[in-house]
Design brief:
three-stranded mixed sheet; metal-binding; nucleic acid binding; P1 Nuclease; mainly alpha; EC 3.1.30.1; globular; disulfide bond; binds zinc ion
Length: 299
């Protein structure tokens, strides 16, 4: 192979990884967050979600929770790409809305936490003002909110700007070359499915639901709570994420490192807890939105 051809293949590999790595929690992660959320919906939320879901969902929110990932590369939806994450200054290990929530053109509020506030507000406006005409697409608002609530819990979706949340940190996951962001979006979950759940996602979700009833049951009320009677608290979730990114995701994962059993076994509990927290908090947020009176306008 000529050296220029080799270079072209190497460039293609990195580009492919960057594109793959730019995805969010993989399909499994988003499905898990939404499936857990569904089992904590109050009656009003079940009814409102059912009315808002597109026909293709067949009544199941979890089935459309990856929709924002599927559309974001289409030109008419490209504006949504910055809404899946928020980057923080390198090595600071903290997050501040005003400093960090903007896109690459410095447009304020264009990040995952801004998107959660925005879509919560859209759904609230329909829930509170039964007699005014709502100009928002509430079906999309529900699907975006459900997806971004998952994303904000993935620690590297609140990662450093310099490495694009781990996307440019090339590592080996056992024998496969990938990047650190992709490890946290997909690989840890996929390895857990193979190792512990016979590759069955429903079995993994069941195990997390069992933990919510036992090991985590004392923590669940505090996970749900939102200060100052707010409907959504994404700033808290992003602060937790960058803290976990520094303590777990970036630690011992410098470029070129091979990540194996030690990394997998010590990080899996973090991933499991973030998926469970994402589900509990999505349900709590939707319950707060839809328990507002009167009921959804014109639905
Ligand atoms: Zn996403």
């Amino acid at each position: 192979m000529s050296s220029s051809l080799r270079l072209w293949f190497a460039t293609l590999l990195v580009l492919t990884q960057l594109i793959n790595g730019a995805l969010c929690w993989g399909k499994e992660g988003h499905y898990t967050v939404c499936k857990i959320a569904e089992s904590y919906f109050e009656e009003e939320t079940v009814a409102a979600v059912k009315k808002l879901l597109p026909e293709s969902a067949d009544g199941d929110l979890a089935s459309v929770c990856s929709w924002p990932d599927e559309i974001k590369h289409h030109w008419q939806w490209r504006w949504t790409s910055p809404l899946h994450y928020v980057d923080t200054p390198d090595y600071r290990c903290n997050y501040e809305y005003c400093r960090d929530c903007h896109d690459t053109h410095k447009h304020q509020d264009r990040c995952v936490t801004g998107a959660i506030f925005n879509y919560t507000m859209q759904l609230m406006s329909a829930s509170e003002n039964s007699h005014t005409i709502v100009h928002y697409n509430l079906t999309e608002a529900l699907m975006f909110l459900s997806h971004y609530m998952g994303d904000v819990h993935q620690p590297l979706h609140t990662g450093f700007l310099g490495d694009l949340g781990g996307n440019t940190i090339i590592v080996n996951w056992y024998h496969n070359e990938t990047n650190l962001h992709h490890v946290w979006d997909n690989m840890i979950i996929e390895s857990a499915l193979e190792t512990y759940y016979n590759s069955s996602l429903p079995r993994m979700i069941q195990a997390l639901q069992a933990k919510l009833k036992n090991g985590w049951s004392n923590d669940v009320p505090s996970w749900k709570s939102c200060h100052f009677h707010q409907k959504a608290c994404p700033n808290l979730y992003a602060s937790e994420s960058i803290d976990l990114a520094c303590k777990y995701a970036y630690r011992n994962a410098t470029p070129g490192t091979t990540l194996g059993d030690e990394y997998f076994l010590s990080r899996l509990p973090v991933v499991e807890k973030r998926l469970a927290q994402g589900g509990i908090r999505l349900a709590a947020t939707l319950n707060r939105i839809f328990s507002a009176k009167p009921k959804l306008a014109g639905l």
